[in-house]
Each structure stands twice: as C-alpha cells, then as structure tokens.
Amino acid sequence: MSILETRPLASVDRLEPGEGATLAWLGQAGFLIAQGGLRIVIDAYLSDSLAEKYHGTRFPHTRMTPPVIAPGNLTGIDWLLCTHGHTDHMDPGTIPALLAANPAARVLAPRAERARAIERGVAEDRLVLVDAGESIDLGGVMATATPAAHEDLRKTEHGHLFLGYVLTGGGVTLWHSGDTIPFPGLAEWLMPFRVDLALLPVNGRDAERAANGVPGNLTLEEAVALADEIGARAMLGHHFGLFDFNTLDPVDGARRLATLASQADVGLVETGTAYHVAPVARLPLSVLIVCRGNICRSPTADGILRAALPEHRIDSAAIMDWNVGKPPHGETTAVAAGRGIRLDTLVARQIRKTDFEEFDLILGMDDHNMAAIHALRPKTSRARIGRLGAFSAPGEETSIIDPWGEPRATFEAVFDQIKTACDRLAQFARAGSTTNRERK
Predict the structure, then answer these.
(1) Is 430 a catalytic site residue?
(2) Is 297 a residue of the active site?
(3) I need a labelling partner for 326 at 20 to 30 A (CA). Which of 201, 222, 400, 404 fits?
C-alpha cells in the first residue's frame, strides 16, 4: 500500500488541506504544505532573479520551466521557511511579493542568515530565526531545525548556514532536508522523529560543478539509502528540472529508482500533483541504549532518559554477559546521584534478538558496540541503529569512552558527554510527540 496518495492538481493555489498533510511542488526545492491547520511555503523560487544575476556567464541560470505560480498569487500563507541563503531558496524575486500578498505571514530562517533575509525583503518584525537543534512552535506545527551540509557543514558564530526542517503536526511528520550531502550523525538526528515523508534533493554533485561554485546534493541512490536509514515511510526526490547544468533527468531517475530495493515508498516529485500523507497512530518512542557491560555508560543514559521522558519506554543492555543481574558501577551511581539522576533500580541485562523488534531506536556508544549491534541485528529488524554520541555534535560520530577502571574525573566527563547527547535526544522525542498526541 502506497504511503502517498496522489491526485491531479490544476494549480497550486487550489491545494486543499485535509487530515494529515497535503503538499505540492513549486519547482526546485520549493513546496507548498498544508499541515496542522497551517499553509507553509518552503524554499520557493518563483522568479527569474538568478537568470538576471548570471546573464552572460557560463551558467546563465535560464529556467527550463516557467514558475508554477506567481508569488503574489500564493495566498493564505502562514509561514515561509528558508533553509539557507542561496537565491533559489531565499529568493529576492519571490519574498517581497509573497509577503505583500500575505500580510500576516512570517519567515523562518537560519540565525546565521539574518542579514541576508532582511536584505532579501523580510521585515525584522516578521523574521523568526533558528539554528540546528532548536524547535519552534509555528502554531499547530512544530518545526525542528536539522543541520545540512551543502557540501560542508559551514557555520558562523551565529550558527549553521545550511539547515533542514522537521515539521510535526496534524498527525504527520515531514522532513525537508535542505540542500545536503550525507555526513556523520545526520541519520541519528532524524531517527527519533519517525519521519513519514522525507523531501530530499537528488540532483547529485560532481567536480565540474564544485569547481564552478555550484555546491552539490545527494545522489538519488544516497537519498534512498538515507530515507531507509532514518526509517522514513516515504521519500520524494526534488531539486531538478530548473537549470540544465544542475539537474536530474527524471526518466533516468525513474529507471534508477526501479533498480533500488527500498523499504520506503520512493519517487520523484511532479508538478501538477497533490501529495497527501494520512496520519498513522504510533506509540511513544522506545529507546534501548547499549554498551559493553551495561554497568557504566548505558545505565547512565538509561537513567537520564527515563527522567526526561517518563512517558516513553527506555531501557539499556550489554553486549557481553559479564554483569547480567548486577547493579550499575558504584562510581557511575555516585556521579549520577550527584547530578540528580537515580540508577539504583537498574539491573544489567544482555541485548536480545527480540529487542530489534520491540524498540524504535537502539543506540551504541563506540565502534565496538556498533559492530556488535550490527552483527546481532536480524534482517527483519524494525529498530533504527545509531550512535548516542551523534546527538552531541552534528558531523561527528562521537564515541563515548568506557570509564571502567578510570579515575572519578573520567566518570564525571563521561556523564557530561552522555547528558548532552541525551538532552538533545529527549528534546527531539518531545518535539516528535506532538504528532503522537494528535494521532490518538
């Protein structure tokens, strides 16, 4: 059964909302989304401003297709979301007309691109700024910013230049990745949201484009692999069909998609089509934390997450059977107690095959843990597999060292590292629970 319901759409201004989320492609990376009682536009490029800017150059940015609608004809808009400052995502030819036609609409943009957003036509009192890892309530939809690498994870003192947005509301979770390539930790950041539909750029990248200042994106194969890694139910590839030097042939793309075995319902987006995602009821997120012996690192994370997410199922386990039935390490318990986290009710156990069906996430601490988890993972596993440390810093597969046999200071440092990762994981679980509450 297809996750995406489709119907012909004569014009995007006739997109009708419904239960769940309904969306239409505006070309390139742009979408109109009806979700949670809101009408949201993201990354709209509805002008010829790039053709004017690059006229007479090697890449003149001449449109392959005209805009699907004039920006002033998009009405009833509550929010315009911009993932980054490139003109085809934050367009000075689109923003002023769109905002003039929607006087109550506001704009969400990267904090690092505040000056550019104002320069492109956004009044300061209508601008809301965000950075990776932050969540903003749009008024019926929760938007959580995720990092993107176009083609690198570039930052300023104010934050990441490239973002994506997870949108949870109306019983559905959507993820628009922004322009990105794969990087360590990206999948882990998305796993807690249990994405229903991922909107991913599939125009790829190569040395010639990079040498001429045209940063690239995911290949089609990378996009499908990423959708499966995060557990997305469906994926639509976009960011093609606008400029002849930076596109994907949809016929070739469809042929390649047919050769890829994917757990997700995958396809390439088309104009003139309305896509609908119906809500699906889900239980609260369940998380299993794994380390070597289940007496130091994993019980620490277990205790922190149980305190932060009392409505969710949290547990921990060991790779080895050395400590089965034992309480956490005394130093681990003491450090946690000093920070207000009780571990005295926890007892070590070993990971089981059934855990891969019972939990949504199984998170390891280091290379040894990850290798063992993957070796144990059945082919029918439902759980997403990742690193807890990835939640600490985007772009880094941070290993959390085993403090066993080390001095007290090491236990303190490991607690701090685990706490940072768990706090962000808990935040994402709570943001994603907006969807779960509405699905009941």
Answers:
(1) no
(2) yes
(3) 400
